[in-house]
Amino acid sequence: MGSTPSDIYEELRGALSSTGAEVLLPGDGEKYQESIKRWSDHCEKRAVYPPAYAKQGVDANARQACVVRVTSKHDVTTTILFIREHRIPFVVRGGGHSTSGSASIEDGLVIDLSRMRSVTVNPQNKTITAEGGTLWSDVDDEAAKYGLATVGGTVNHTGVGGLTLGGGYGYLSGRYGLVIDNLLQVEMVLASGEQVIASETDNEDLFWANFGVATAFTFKAYDQPNPVFSGPLIFLPEQLTQVVEFLNEFENKTDGNQALLMGFACPPPARAPIVMTMPFHNGTLEEATAFFKPLIDIGPIANHTTMMPYHALNTCLNEGQGFGGRKMFGGGAYKLPLDAEFVQKLFAEFLAFITREGQNTEDSILLFETLSYKKILEVPNEKMAFANRGEYYNVATVIKWEDPALDDTVRDFSRALLKKTSQSAGIEQDEKVRSVKGVGVYANYVNPDIPASEVYGNNAEKLTELKKKYDPENLFDRGTRLVPRPLVVVN
After folding, report:
1. DSSP run (H or E) holding 437
2. What is the pLDDT of residues 388-427, one digit of tens each?
3. 370 SS3 class
4. Where are the alpha helices (DSSP H) in 328-448?
5. Tell me, what DSSP letter sits at residue 257?
6. How far apart are CA 38 and CA 97, in angstroms?
7. Which residue stretches of 66-159 are H helix?
8. For the whole model, what pTM was predicted?
9. Which residues pair with 213 in a beta bridge?
């Protein structure tokens, strides 16, 4: 008789018994249920019995949901070696924020980094080192103690690992580039179980590609002693044309210290459609007021702008963005100037969908992210695997719903709307043009089922070759597909 799932995982428990790591199975009650929680409910994956997979030398008894809450890179190595021995499918969870589902699995093992949240700041060298399970709130708050900051996201409950490895846009990108542009080194565990450091001078090709479990990141930090200007400015739908007119001047006026988000939503309690903007200025109140005066002069129905510490800025959009409920990111790109009539039509189409009776999708948002790309373009697309550098901006949908029966409807609507937006700006290009001007797709806003060439452009070919070097057995087989998965589900 073969071993049982509990026998197999008891072996792993024994190997990790002295480290404080936890090995959780579906029978472990609330602890297990807590461990599979994700930012979006549609990404939560529970155990499936019995597993119906092609054998291919795999220990079928090991195909049971398991979560390993590691506490160190050594725990990760132990777990990776165990995975290799038993040929267990696995994924890695950092902040649990992705809506692609790539941090969850039904029939294998989750390496959960959420207990690795240490942040170390070196004020002399102006560097920040964050463990693989760290959230941006951890980084922002610790850096602020030293009057420092680094490029992060626009909400602070996202994981550092996912945002970084996907490129990473934030309020400071106009001044300092992408998150990944400020990455100095990564500590990671490879598919072989080996622990390595990758940087521009050590394991350079691995730093370029990032194949492994990232257990720590070291970033450049910058002086940020002064508060910043930001906060919501809310407008009526009939003021949209004037807002777009201001947005169209942004590109020519910004010096990299400003950003502007513009979104369409129907927030509670009134559920009335609004145009929400989120201005940002890294400087004095007088400078900010002068820069955004034409926008403020339009006459917002609510003005919550103020000066605030940088680490508080990334909390402004947190409300309504917590864990729970079904959510999906979608991403595209747009160029300035925007045609106001086209934007009006997008607004109407989006509102018609999210207010459709019975869908419960009113908490959704369509967001135009105008974060200056001038600094980002100083780095060529070939410098890193990330290939979304171009003279355009990201546009995103965050759609929320409740009924699982709407999953496909939501996905199809989001893709069609965003495709229309990208096509209107001439973003969709053949692969030769993409490699030079950017793919027009932000990796953190897409599902992993799209071709790798659409996310990485001509960099996909080099990634595939490096994949063979660092993961020849395709142990890391989730996420955007570079090579076919070795295991096939049998219906």
Report:
1. helix 431-437
2. 999 999 999 989 888 989 989 999 999 999 989 888 766 6
3. strand
4. 340-354, 407-424, 431-437
5. S
6. 6
7. 73-86, 136-144
8. 0.90
9. 189
